[in-house]
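Entry 12.
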Amino acid sequence: MPGPRCCEYSSVVTRRICYVHAGPHKTGSTSIQWFLQENRAELLERGYFVPESETKRGAHYALVEKLCGLELGEHREPLVARSIRALVETPAETVVISSEALEGLLASRKHANEFFRRIGELKLEPKLILFPRHQPQWINSSYASSVKSFRRSDSFQSCALGFAQSPGARFSRWLELADAHAAELIAQPFTKETVARGVIPEFLRSIGINSSELRDVEIRRNEAVGPFTVGVARDVLRSLGETGESLTWLQARRCKVTLAAYLGERGLADAGYCGLTTALARHIEAKLQPDNDAFAQRVWGKPWADVFAGDAGEDFTSNDVEMCQPGWFTQRRLRRAVHGMTAALHEILRDPALAVEAPWNDWRQRSGLISRE
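Predicted 3D structure (tokens):
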């Protein structure tokens, strides 16, 4: 049975603050979500209600999809119904929701309108929390993550150049979104210093909590992979492209887990991927500088380069196996790994339980990468 609509409960709640952490991807979101989930009880004692998550890591994917008006599937509806009911019934004056899928979902006018309408029906006052990141480092990290998750197989250069041209690379769209829906935008720069200090204290400060009073604020999750892992995943997914097939969300998730186990068991797991060259980084910076400066001046009252002084202008040397060909021994290992994982991929494709055709099993929807009406 479909879950209850938000408006069924609107008469019994008073207006409260709702912090909506929207990412973006690759800015410590997994660490924040894990922390929120692990500390739900203690946060509730302090007046902060964190809804239940469908995932072990704590992200509110199903909840934000529901609030955006998307179809969840029968197996996810009951959890969201419970979350909404608990959200309404909790005495807490503050609600905290976190899903980096909102980075894509809220880019759709249709889904953004629905999201803020339903937030309003719940008598919540939205405050958007965003962690802008300097774009060269951002796309470098995002690309590696997407490839290891079996969601893209294009070259890094093609991805980076397309990214620099895309609306999603421009943070001014968040100002426009906040203005359109009368929502406060709280932007905290995600810099090298943020990584060194940890993103959780920065997040907690954004919602009015002193991090020294809570545990596990230094945890880091979702470590980045290296060039070998990226090379294997990319070639395996490309072999699938030759057949015209595409992966479902469940299939892609199983491939990601299988790849990590395969490389780990053979001592082939690596870290530190870099697709960037200095020239490509400068191109991305120049392309996005006007929008970056306009955003930074309005939000922080200073130029973007001042806020991201430790990130802007950084030099890079690519270690992507397509741009920097490895030695013959590594190439042989790559071929063997691709062969082994391609066989594993075809086993995964033969599992009907992973191939269900439904919106909830579309990784584009669950990542927020849907059409922008």
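Annotation: The chain has two domains: 13-132+171-213, 135-169+225-365. Residues 162 and 169 are 10 Å apart (CA to CA).
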